[in-house]
């Protein structure tokens, strides 16, 4: 039976790596995210080339519950429901609390936390019917610890951890698991672009930016790769991981061990 995976924020970075990993298992993939039409077409074609299943793209905006509902309804109408749900969409904004723009707070909570509530709520009925389902939420080391100036992001990721645990308890007897992955600094195109900018701004080398700024709190002094996160998502969605539920797996080079 071909499984269907819905992955939010999957047109680049971690989400795209996860989409490719599941595509290689022969799953149907429902992609979602922003990008120029030609970029989205290229991504859809690349993922489609890896699977014997069907690959679709849905443009749902994760700040809009009605668009999220349509994304999840598409999985039902086209594939009979979502077997594997990966909540990956996320945004960041950095500012001190007293100057933090209210609209940025609302946007980050909507995308990084509330969207997972909307997708899970819609996915669970079909999972219960089938007696099998996997929910993987991409949280962050910031789901466990805080950094200054990231109030909305840290609050949202802590919220994701609580949501994950609650859902896991509710569906524990239905063959459904819910878990969070907590990556540290992952080398995505977004992060790569910041390195030369930070080097210029701080007047230091790119190597210093990586070791002394970005990976300061990561004892291994190495970035996590998107493929490593994807392989963990793949494992959590497997039958071998059937008894792993309601928890998080840290992949942070030792960050939260300190």
CATH fold title of the largest domain: Rossmann fold
Unreliable stretches (pLDDT < 50, length at least 5) are none
Question: What is the correct CATH architecture of the largest domain?
Answer: 3-Layer(aba) Sandwich
Reading off the top of the CATH hierarchy, the class of the largest domain is best stated as: Alpha Beta
Shape: globular
- How would you classify the quaternary structure? single chain
The amount of beta strand, in percent, is 5-15%
- Arrangement of strands in the largest sheet: 3-2-1-4-5-6-7
Structural class: alpha/beta
Family: Belongs to the short-chain dehydrogenases/reductases (SDR) family.
Keywords: Oxidoreductase
GO biological process, one term: monocarboxylic acid metabolic process
InterPro entries: 3-OHbutyrate_DH, NAD(P)-bd_dom_sf, Sc_DH/Rdtase_CS, SDR, SDR_fam
Kindly describe this structure:
The protein is an alpha/beta fold and 258 residues long. It folds into two domains: 4-184 and 224-257, NAD(P)-binding Rossmann-like Domain (Rossmann fold), CATH 3.40.50; 187-223, no CATH class. It has eight helices and seven strands; from the N terminus they run βαβαβαβαβαβαααβ. It has helices at 13-23, 37-48, 65-79, 102-130, 151-170, 189-202, 206-214, 226-236; strands spanning 4-7, 28-32, 55-58, 84-87, 133-138, 176-183, 248-251. Strands 3-2-1-4-5-6-7 form a seven-stranded parallel beta sheet, with helices on both faces. Helix 5 (151-170) links the parallel strand 5 and strand 6. It starts with a strand and ends in a 7-residue tail after the last strand. The relative contact order is 0.13. The mean pLDDT is 97.
């Amino acid at each position: 039976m071909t499984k269907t995976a819905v992955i939010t924020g999957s047109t680049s970075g971690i989400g795209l790596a996860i989409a490719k990993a599941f595509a290689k298992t022969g799953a149907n993939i429902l992609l979602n995210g922003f990008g120029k039409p030609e970029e989205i077409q290229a991504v859809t074609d690349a993922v489609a080339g890896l699977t014997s299943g069907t690959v679709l793209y849905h443009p749902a905006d994760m700040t809009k519950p009605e668009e999220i509902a349509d994304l999840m309804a598409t999985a039902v109408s086209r594939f009979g429901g979502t077997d594997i749900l990966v909540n990956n969409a996320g945004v960041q904004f950095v500012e001190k609390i007293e100057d933090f723009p209210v609209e940025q707070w609302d946007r980050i909570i909507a995308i990084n936390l509330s969207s997972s509530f909307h997708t899970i709520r819609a996915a669970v009925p079909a999972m219960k019917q089938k007696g099998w389902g996997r929910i993987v939420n991409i949280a962050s080391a910031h789901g466990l610890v805080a950094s200054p100036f990231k109030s909305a992001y840290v609050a949202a990721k802590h919220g994701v951890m609580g949501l994950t645990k609650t859902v896991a308890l509710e569906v524990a007897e239905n063959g459904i698991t819910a878990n969070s992955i907590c990556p540290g600094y992952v080398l995505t195109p977004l992060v790569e672009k910041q390195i030369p900018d930070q080097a210029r701004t701080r007047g230091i080398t790119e190597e210093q930016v990586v070791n002394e700024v970005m990976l300061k709190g990561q004892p291994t002094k190495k970035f996590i790769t998107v493929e490593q996160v994807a392989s963990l998502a793949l494992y959590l969605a497997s039958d071998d991981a059937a008894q792993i539920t309601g928890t998080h797996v840290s992949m942070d080079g030792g960050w939260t061990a300190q």
